[in-house]
Amino acid sequence: EQILKTPEVRGALISVLGENYITHSHRFWHMRSPDADTYSSQEKLTEKVANGCHQDSYGPASQARSHRTRYARVMYYSQDTPIEMGPTHVLAGTQYHDVLTDEDRARVLPVDGKAGLVFLSHFDIGHAAGVNLQNRLRHMIKFIFMRAEEPRQLSWDCENTEWQSPEEITAPYALEP
User: Could you write out the DSSP letters of every residue in the chain?
Assistant: First the structure.
């Protein structure tokens, strides 16, 4: 709770979901044990991660894969998590896909970083656990947040309300409004 209530995390959530967002009761501790398998090549490691790619499910009353942001996911890493420790990998731009493709899986990106890393993403983005090659456990806690109401105004100091495409896009296509 202390991490989730910091001005940085709270501000990011407000900018995505609005001032009165709701912290969903679902939270899950993801522990990744060291992998007992040996991998003969980087390709085998990449294949294992790609095969684990998925999108989380919704309850029966929810609208999945909506272009309107309704849910957000926060992943919190309490310890340094280099790639060799098996961090979660994400598939940029897949939040609007009904099905993940092999092309999507080929673009997997690790969410690695220093202790205290908080990663905010669209709930529907494809993701997979990495392979833990270190001799210690990897920990991550996943939290879900929901929009409670439609935004009525901007929640940040905005100098220009006109849409500008990002300078760098990690998805294979631009998603214009």
Answer: -TTTTSHHHHHHHHHHH-TT-EEEEEEEEEEEPPP-S--SSHHHHHHHHHHT-B-----TTS-TT-SS--EEEEEE-SS-B-GGG---EEETTGGG-SS--HHHHTT-EE--BSTT-EEEEETT-EEE-----SSS-EEEEEEEEE--S---S-SS--S--S----SS--SSS----
- The contacts of residue 146 (CB under 8 Å, 6+ apart) are 17, 21, 22, 24, 70, 71, 72
CB atoms within 10 A of CB 167: 5
pLDDT at 41: 85
The tokens for 102 are 């092999």
User: Which residue did the predictor score with more confidence, 14 or 177?
Assistant: 14
What pLDDT does 157 receive? 78
